[in-house]
C-alpha cells in the first residue's frame, strides 16, 4: 500500500473519510445508539489508542492486523464494530450456525471476551455464546441448535463440535483471532488452518495480538486480504507504568524469598508465574506451609477449580494466585499490585504478557523477576526483545548471593521506577545512556538457552509439563 498515512488512524488506510477527523469519544465513531448507551452506562467515554485507530477501519469492512499491549482495550476494538454491523444488518440465525467467530487460546480469555461483548451489546437483540473444553459438550450442542450471532470459542472444542455436526461455519461473516501469537505457541496452527478452510472465503478477518513474532506475520499474510496494520506501541514493549526489577537468587532460595516478598505490606494482590503446571502446584504447597494462602490455575485444573480460584482472587478472598503462561492472557483482574516471575519465561514475549496483568486501566504496578544462574540467558533475551534493561534489586539480608555472571548485568540507575515497598537502597531505573536492545545477561552457550522449559530438565518431561490441556 502506497497511500500516505492517515492523520486519524496513523496507518496507511487509504480512506478519504479519515483525513481530517479527530476522534475523542465513542460517539464520534457513529456507532449505533444502543451500543453508545451501553458504553455510557459502564462509564466508557474516551476510546483507547488501539480503539481509536482500529474501529474506523473495521467499520469500513477492512481486514486488520492490530498490535497493542495487553490491557489496552483490544476486545472493544473488534467487538464494537461487529455489534454495530449486526445491529444494522439483521439476519435470521441459521440453525447450528454463527455470523461472527472469535477464537482465543484459553478458557479464561474466551469467557472474558464473551462477557465484554454481552455488556456492550446488552441493548441489542443479538446472541453471544461461548464454547471451550472442560464443560459438558452436550449442553453446548443444545445451545447451538438454533444458531447464534456471535460465537467465542477455543479451537479444540470448536472442531469437536464441527466433527459432531453440531456446528457449521458456512455463514461466518467475520473471523477474529485474539492473541494469535499465543495460539501458535500452544500449537493451534493445524487447527487454525483447518478452521480457515471451513469459513467462507468472502469474509472480514481481524487479527489482534500484543506481540508480533515472524510466525504471526506469516499467518497474517496467509489469511488476511490486503489488511490495514495498526500498531499503537512497538511490538513487545512493556507497560510504562510497571516498575520492573530483577533479583538474582539461586533456585534453592526462591521459595523462601517468595514467601518473604509476599509478606510485604505493599503487596495487596500478587500474581505469581511459573513455567510448568507441576511447578505451580509445588509453589502453592510451599506457600501454604509458610502460612501464605494461595491458589493455582493451570491446564490440569478442572474448569470448576479454575473458576473458583480466579473468582477468589478477583474478590480478594485469596491475594496470591499462581499461574502458568497458558492462563496469563485470560486473567483480567483489577488491582493486581505485583506480578512475580518465580521462573523467567523461556519465550521473551511471554514476559510482556505476564507483567501486563498489572498496571491496568491507568493504575501503577510492579513486576519482580527471580533469576537463577541458568535463567540469565532468558533475561538477556527478554531485555533484547523489550529493548530495555531491567534494574537489579539486591538480595535481602540472610540470603546467599548468586555467583557473579561472566558478563556484567545492568544495575539500577538513578532514574526510573522502583518496586513499591520492596526495593532497597536508591530507586532503580534504566542506566543513563544505555543503548536499547543490548542484552546484559551472561552469554549463552553456542546454541543459546534451552527453549523447551527449565534448564537441565529432560526435554520429554518439559514438553509433557508444558503441554496444554484440551481447550
UniProtKB/TrEMBL annotation:
Q: Which domain of life is it from?
A: Bacteria
Please provide the record's keywords in A-Z order.
Answer: ATP-binding, Cytoplasm, Helicase, Hydrolase, Nucleotide-binding
Q: Where is this region: Disordered?
A: 389-471
Basic and acidic residues: compositionally biased ranges: 462-471
**Residue ranges occupied by any DEAD-box RNA helicase Q domain in the UniProt entry:** 24-52
If you read the UniProt record, what top EC class would you report for this enzyme, in one word?
Answer: hydrolase
Q: What is its EC number?
A: 3.6.4.13
Keyword Cytoplasm among record annotations: yes
Which Pfam families does the record cross-reference, listed alphabetically? DEAD, Helicase_C
A Gene Ontology annotation in the biological process aspect, one of them, is:
ribosome assembly
Q: Which GO terms describe its cellular component?
A: cytosol
Q: Which reaction does it catalyse?
A: ATP + H2O = ADP + phosphate + H(+)
Pro residues: bias regions: 393-408
- From the record, give the transmembrane residue ranges: none
Q: Where is this motif: Q motif?
A: 24-52
- What InterPro entries does the entry give? DEAD/DEAH_box_helicase_dom, DEAD/DEAH_RhlB, DEAD_box_RNA_helicase, Helicase_ATP-bd, Helicase_C-like, P-loop_NTPase, RNA_helicase_DEAD_Q_motif
Q: Which Gene3D superfamilies match?
A: P-loop containing nucleotide triphosphate hydrolases
Compositional bias per record (Low complexity), positions renumbered to this chain: 441-459
All copies of domain Helicase ATP-binding, residue ranges: 55-230
Q: Which GO terms describe its molecular function?
A: ATP binding; hydrolase activity; nucleic acid binding; RNA helicase activity
Stretches assigned to the Helicase C-terminal domain: 253-403
Q: In its keyword annotation, does this UniProt entry include Coiled coil?
A: no
Family to which the UniProt record says this protein belongs: Belongs to the DEAD box helicase family.
PANTHER family noted in UniProt:
ATP-DEPENDENT RNA HELICASE RHLE, ATP-DEPENDENT RNA HELICASE RHLE-RELATED
List the protein's name.
DEAD-box ATP-dependent RNA helicase RhpA
Instruction: Print the organism lineage.
Output: Bacteria, Pseudomonadati, Pseudomonadota, Alphaproteobacteria, Hyphomicrobiales
Amino acid at each position: 500500500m502506497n497511500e500516505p498515512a492517515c492523520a486519524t488512524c496513523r496507518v496507511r488506510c487509504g480512506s478519504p473519510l479519515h483525513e481530517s477527523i479527530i476522534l475523542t469519544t465513542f460517539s464520534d465513531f457513529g456507532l449505533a445508539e444502543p451500543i453508545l448507551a451501553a458504553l455510557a452506562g459502564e462509564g466508557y467515554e474516551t476510546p483507547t489508542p488501539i480503539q481509536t485507530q482500529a474501529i474506523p477501519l473495521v467499520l469500513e469492512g477492512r481486514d486488520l492486523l492490530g498490535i497493542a499491549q495487553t490491557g489496552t482495550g483490544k476486545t472493544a476494538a473488534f467487538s464494537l464494530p461487529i455489534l454495530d454491523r449486526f445491529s444494522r444488518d439483521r439476519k435470521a440465525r441459521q440453525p447450528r450456525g454463527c455470523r461472527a467467530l472469535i477464537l482465543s487460546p484459553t478458557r479464561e480469555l474466551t469467557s472474558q471476551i464473551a462477557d465484554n461483548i454481552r455488556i456492550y451489546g446488552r441493548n441489542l437483540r443479538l446472541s453471544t455464546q461461548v464454547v471451550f473444553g472442560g464443560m459438558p459438550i452436550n449442553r453446548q450442542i443444545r445451545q447451538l441448535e438454533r444458531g447464534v450471532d456471535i460465537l467465542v470459542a477455543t479451537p479444540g472444542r470448536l472442531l469437536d463440535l464441527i466433527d459432531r455436526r453440531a456446528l457449521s461455519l458456512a455463514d461466518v461473516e467475520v473471523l477474529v483471532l485474539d492473541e494469535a501469537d499465543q495460539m501458535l505457541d500452544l500449537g493451534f496452527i493445524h487447527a487454525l488452518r483447518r478452521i480457515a478452510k471451513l469459513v467462507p472465503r468472502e469474509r472480514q478477518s481481524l487479527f489482534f495480538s500484543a506481540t508480533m513474532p515472524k510466525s504471526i506475520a506469516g499467518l497474517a499474510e496467509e489469511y488476511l486480504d490486503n489488511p490495514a496494520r495498526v500498531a499503537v506501541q512497538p511490538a513487545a514493549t512493556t507497560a510504562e507504568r510497571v516498575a520492573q526489577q530483577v533479583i538474582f537468587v539461586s533456585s534453592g532460595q526462591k521459595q523462601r524469598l517468595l514467601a518473604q516478598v509476599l509478606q510485604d505490606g505493599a503487596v495487596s494482590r500478587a500474581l505469581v508465574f511459573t513455567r510448568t503446571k507441576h511447578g505451580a502446584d509445588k509453589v502453592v504447597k510451599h506457600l501454604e506451609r509458610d502460612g501464605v494462602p494461595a491458589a493455582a490455575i493451570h491446564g490440569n485444573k478442572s474448569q470448576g477449580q479454575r473458576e473458583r480460584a480466579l473468582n477468589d482472587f478477583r474478590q480478594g478472598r485469596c491475594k496470591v494466585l499462581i499461574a502458568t503462561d497458558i492462563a496469563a492472557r485470560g486473567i483480567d483482574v483489577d488491582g493486581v499490585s505485583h506480578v512475580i516471575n518465580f521462573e523467567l519465561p523461556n519465550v521473551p514475549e511471554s514476559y510482556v504478557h505476564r507483567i501486563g496483568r498489572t498496571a491496568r486501566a491507568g493504575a501503577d504496578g510492579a513486576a519482580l523477576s527471580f533469576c537463577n544462574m541458568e535463567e540469565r540467558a532468558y533475561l538477556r533475551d527478554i531485555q533484547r526483545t523489550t529493548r530495555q534493561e531491567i534494574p537489579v534489586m539486591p538480595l535481602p539480608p540472610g540470603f546467599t548471593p548468586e555467583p557473579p555472571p561472566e558478563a556484567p548485568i545492568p544495575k539500577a540507575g538513578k532514574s526510573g521506577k522502583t518496586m513499591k515497598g520492596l526495593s532497597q537502597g536508591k530507586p532503580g531505573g534504566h542506566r543513563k545512556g544505555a543503548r536499547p536492545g543490548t542484552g546484559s545477561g551472561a552469554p549463552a552457550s553456542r546454541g543459546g538457552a534451552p527453549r523447551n522449559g527449565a534448564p537441565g530438565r529432560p526435554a520429554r518431561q518439559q514438553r509433557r509439563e508444558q503441554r496444554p490441556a484440551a481447550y
